[in-house]
Amino acid sequence: MGIGFKDFRKAPKLLGFASGPFESAVEAANAWIVEHSADVLNVETLTDTGGIGGISSTSQDGVRVWYRT
User: Fold this and answer.
1) Which of 3, 24, 43, 57 sits at a 20 to 30 Å CA gap from 65?
2) Rounded to whole angstroms, how far apart are CA atoms 4 and 36?
3) Domain boundary assignment for the chain
């Protein structure tokens, strides 16, 4: 028995230039957990840090589900 993880990113939006809502990642994670009867150990928020011209920003990019294998 061990541990594994699976990442769920926000759904792509119009022409791939933007991402969908954070909730799309949560919904995908919930569906996968139910479908696989996953024994969830922890859930983390995935963030994306970037910046332009000395101004930095952080956005919620998805979730990571840690589960027992």
Assistant:
1) 57
2) 13
3) 3-68
Distance CA 5, CA 37 (A): 14
Q: In the structure encoding, which two tokens stand for residue 39, read together?
A: 């024994």
Q: What is the pLDDT of residue 14?
A: 62
**What are the backbone dihedrals phi and psi of residue 34, each rounded to the nearest 5 degrees, phi first?**
-65, -45
Considering the entire predicted model, what is its pTM?
Answer: 0.80
Residue 27 CB contacts under 8 Å (≥ 6 apart), including other chains: none
Give the DSSP letter string of 2-63.
-EEEEEEEPPB-GGGSSB--HHHHHHHHHHHHHHHT-EEEEEEEEEEEEEETTEEEEEEEEE
